[in-house]
């Protein structure tokens, strides 16, 4: 049972009777009259349990974009329903206009739409639907809550999409070069041309040289069917926030831009996410559906408060590809976590693959290290300098193992990682 604003107004109205007849009997009589009126109103109100409530399927949206959910309220009884319906959601679902004033006649049906603008990526769920059926006097109401399932999936926003045209232009320049020399096996023959100083003597075509009486070399074009494996770390270190953005979300944004460029380059892109278990795996997607498949695979991922098991992840990488590939590890450059779990595995990875480690750096560390305006700030600066030093030492160890390290802020990571991929491609290192 719930009281409306008319119930206290009815009690206050009894003040007139008390003024005219100021006795305790008057007070008790008025209280009894009000209680009877409220009780009668509750009894006459339509029971919410007789209603039928259902929800249409909620479509997924990109983070920051609004969607809507439709709730259907059916009154199968011959009596009229007058009341309020609240469609409650998680706070991060960003529900707006979730309270609906309804009047549904007997046998009627009404659609109630609630606007949803998620503020966090992932699955945002509905809580309960509460129906308050108000009596004919408007003094009290029957109230009941119903569990009505509903989920809106907020997809990664892919804010780095704005950088895609410029990177595709660079890629077209690379593909348009007439003679690209690539060392090593696994390359495709392109054409013959005269030898110039600086060419690799191993590229000389001796038969063509004998026929033309001039030194001729073969030119090669890069293979388009290269393999790129994106590995997303979902362990506890990815839960940290940098510039009010989770490291995991920044890594996702960088992955999407790199995957978009790599797929346009004709390379095959696979995806793996995990910590102590594999949380998501994507392999064999076509170029036209790759981005959509990646976004769907990333959307429900959340950081787990666990350490990453890199030996397990390395085994999953081996299951995805036995041939040499470009493996991009999107994991925070945290010295303790890397030295304890990742370093023992990197020796095996670098032996079989080209490895790039992309990390989200915190610009606040650099600002803290430079601020020595007071005594307390000096201690903060010293702590920041020590942290920066440890990260630099870890970076140097990784580079000695043959790992390419990219450690920049969340805004710069997508472009820095994609530019590094294009650099490796231009040098024939993939």
Q: Based on helices, strands and strand pairing, what is the structural class?
A: alpha+beta
Tell me the CATH superfamily of the largest domain: von Willebrand factor, type A domain
**Which range does the strand content fall in?**
25-35%
Mean pLDDT: 86
C-alpha end-to-end distance: 70 Å
Instruction: Give a count of the beta strands, DSSP E runs of length 2 or more.
Output: 21
* Main sheet characteristics: 7 strands, mixed
CATH architecture of the largest domain: 3-Layer(aba) Sandwich
User: Radius of gyration, Cα only, in angstroms?
Assistant: 33 Å
Helix fraction by DSSP (H/I, runs of at least 4): 25-40%
What is the 3D shape?
elongated
Please work out how many helical segments DSSP would assign. 11
CATH class of the largest domain: Alpha Beta
Uncertain segments: 178-186
Number of domains: 3
């Amino acid at each position: 049972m719930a009281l409306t604003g008319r119930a206290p107004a009815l009690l206050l109205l009894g003040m007139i009777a008390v003024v005219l007849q100021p006795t305790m009997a008057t007070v008790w009589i008025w209280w009894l009259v009000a209680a009877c009126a409220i009780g009668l109103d509750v009894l006459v109100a339509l029971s919410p349990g007789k209603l039928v409530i259902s929800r249409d399927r909620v479509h997924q949206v990109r983070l920051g974009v609004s969607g809507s959910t439709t709730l259907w309220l059916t009154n199968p009884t011959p009596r009229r329903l007058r009341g309020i319906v609240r469609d409650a959601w998680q706070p991060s679902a960003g529900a707006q206009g979730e309270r609906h004033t309804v009047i549904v006649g007997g046998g009627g049906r009404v659609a109630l739409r609630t606007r949803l603008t998620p503020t966090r990526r992932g699955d945002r769920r509905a809580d309960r639907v509460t129906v308050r059926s108000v009596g004919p006097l408007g003094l009290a109401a029957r109230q009941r809550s119903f569990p009505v399932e509903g989920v809106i999936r907020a997809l990664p926003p892919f804010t780095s999409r704005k950088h895609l045209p410029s990177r595709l232009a660079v890629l077209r320049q690379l593909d348009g070069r007439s003679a690209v020399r690539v060392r090593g096996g696994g390359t495709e023959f392109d054409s013959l041309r005269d030898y110039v100083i600086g060419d690799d003597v191993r590229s000389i075509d001796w038969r063509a040289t004998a026929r033309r009486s001039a030194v001729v070399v073969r030119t090669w074009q890069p293979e388009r069917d290269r393999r790129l494996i994106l590995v997303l770390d979902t362990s506890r270190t990815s839960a940290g926030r940098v510039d009010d953005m989770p490291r995991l979300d920044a890594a996702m944004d960088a992955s999407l831009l790199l995957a978009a460029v790599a797929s346009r380059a004709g390379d095959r892109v696979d995806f793996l996410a995990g910590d102590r278990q594999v949380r998501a795996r994507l392999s064999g997607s076509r170029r036209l559906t790759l981005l959509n498949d990646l976004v769907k695979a990333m959307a429900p991922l959340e950081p787990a408060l666990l350490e990453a098991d890199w030996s397990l992840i390395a085994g999953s990488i081996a299951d995805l590809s036995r041939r040499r590939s470009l493996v991009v590890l999107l994991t925070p450059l945290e010295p303790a976590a890397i030295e304890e779990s990742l370093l023992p595995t990197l020796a095996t990875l670098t032996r079989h693959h080209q490895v790039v480690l992309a990390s989200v750096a915190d610009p606040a560390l650099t600002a803290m290290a430079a601020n020595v305006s007071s005594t307390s700030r000096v201690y903060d600066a010293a702590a920041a300098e020590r942290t920066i030093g440890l990260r630099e030492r870890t970076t140097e160890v990784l580079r000695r193992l043959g790992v390419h390290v990219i450690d920049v802020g969340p805004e710069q990571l997508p472009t820095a990682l994609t530019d590094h991929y294009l650099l490796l491609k231009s040098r024939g290192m993939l």
